[in-house]
Design a protein that fits this description.
Elements: E1 21-25, E2 31-33, H1 35-40, E3 43-51, H2 57-63, E4 76-85, H3 86-92, E5 108-116, E6 124-130, H4 131-135, E7 142-147, E8 150-151, E9 161-163, E10 176-182, H5 189-192, E11 221-226, E12 232-233, E13 237-246, E14 253-259, E15 267-268, E16 270-272, E17 295-303, E18 307-315, E19 340-346, H6 348-354
Parallel strand pairs: 1-10, 12-19
Antiparallel strand pairs: 1-2, 3-4, 4-7, 5-6, 5-10, 7-8, 7-9, 11-13, 13-17, 14-15, 14-18, 16-17, 18-19
Length: 355
């Protein structure tokens, strides 16, 4: 179960033997790589969560209407991605690791897709990241050809996609065709006229797209997955609340706080990561922590129904979620990381006794 998002029809590659990845631009060399050649490079695996910038957009739109796909809280997914490091591929064209600028003045790496979209006037989807991020092996940017131990499916980018951990999903370009070393960030629609963060005072009448940078790292985020908003429970007592938490840029989750009284008092949740970690355990050392992956959490709290349950996360840099969605409202409904709130009802019998 992994969300799917694309801005044009899913492309079909009939003959994998004809596929070539073209790498060039402001670099010393150019290269054209077949899938066989890419798979000859050292294989690297990273566990990473990819999240759409519009995750939880519907809740923001309930405050004030926004434009965009009406995502709930599931426009994200955690996967095991395998492929070649982007830094290894860039070395082939003469760009060393940890480079901030190429010998010919390149400062950004542009990814160009096979798929066509109307926003680009029928041209390909594209995006970019800074050269230093692309050439830094610790950033774990890979050209992935496997997902969860299997060949990429068409929906997820077959035969090759970029995975940029810790960055909003729009930069993890699928169906990769070209990699270009460029002097300035990509000038494509989804870098320059979308996926930018504006204050609540900006609307479609006064928006100036050139006044904001393209969004990259996503902020600290968490959501309640169980129980569901509007659920009915019997009586009062302990309720187990579960959900996910994550933060961009390789920042881990320090803690998740859960409240059963709308935020007056809090209980710290237990955290888990990885299939064998066991609830309540995350390795303290970075070598064994999946810094790009979500954290699953669980808390047992005392509730008196009906109740408003709230969850908020704090990352390892002490970044916290916004308390109210109104303070981060923006016209595209992106990056809604406000406290997640659900309402739990009592059963009809419980409601009658309360009356």
């Amino acid at each position: 179960m992994f969300y799917k998002r694309n801005h044009g029809p899913v492309p079909v590659l009939e003959d994998i033997s004809l596929y070539r990845l073209e790498v060039g631009g402001l670099a010393s060399n150019r290269c054209s790589l077949s899938m066989d050649a890419i798979k000859q490079l050292p294989k690297h695996t990273v566990v990473a969560t990819i999240q759409c910038a519009g995750n939880r957009r519907t809740a923001m739109s309930m405050t004030r209407k926004v434009k965009g796909v009406g995502w709930g809280l599931a426009a994200l997914g955690n996967g095991i991605w395998s492929g070649a490091r982007l830094s290894d591929v860039l070395e082939i064209v003469g760009i060393p690791k940890y480079s901030r600028v190429s010998a010919y003045g390149g400062k950004h790496v542009e990814f160009v897709s096979v798929d066509k979209c109307k926003e680009e006037n029928g041209g390909p989807y594209k995006g970019s990241i800074p050269l230093f991020q692309a050439t830094n092996p610790e950033a774990d940017v890979i050209l992935a050809y496997e997902m969860n131990g299997e060949e990429l499916s068409r929906d997820h980018g077959f035969p090759l996609r970029v995975v940029v951990p810790g960055v909003l999903g729009a930069r993890s370009v699928k169906w990769l065709r070209n990699i270009n070393i460029i002097a300035e960030e990509c000038q494509g629609f989804f870098m320059q006229k979308d996926y930018k963060m504006f204050p609540p005072s900006v609307d479609w009448d006064n928006v100036n797209w050139g006044s904001r940078r393209p969004l990259m790292d996503f902020p600290v985020q968490c959501a309640i997955c169980s129980p569901e908003d509007g659920s009915y429970l019997d009586g009062k007592g302990k309720v187990t609340v579960k959900g996910y938490a994550l933060s961009g840029g390789g920042r881990g989750i320090e803690r998740v706080d859960v409240s059963a009284d709308g935020g007056k008092t809090w209980t710290e949740a237990k955290l888990a990561q990885g299939p064998k970690s066991g609830l309540g355990y995350i390795p303290d050392d970075d070598d064994h922590r999946d810094k790009w992956a979500w954290v699953l959490w669980e808390a047992s709290i005392e509730v008196h129904l009906p109740a408003d349950i709230v969850a908020k996360a704090v990352d390892t840099s002490a970044n916290v979620q916004a308390e109210h969605v109104e303070t981060i409202w923006n016209l595209r409904g992106v990056l809604n990381n406000s406290w997640h709130r659900i309402h739990i009802n009592g059963t009809s019998k419980q409601l009658h006794s309360n009356l």
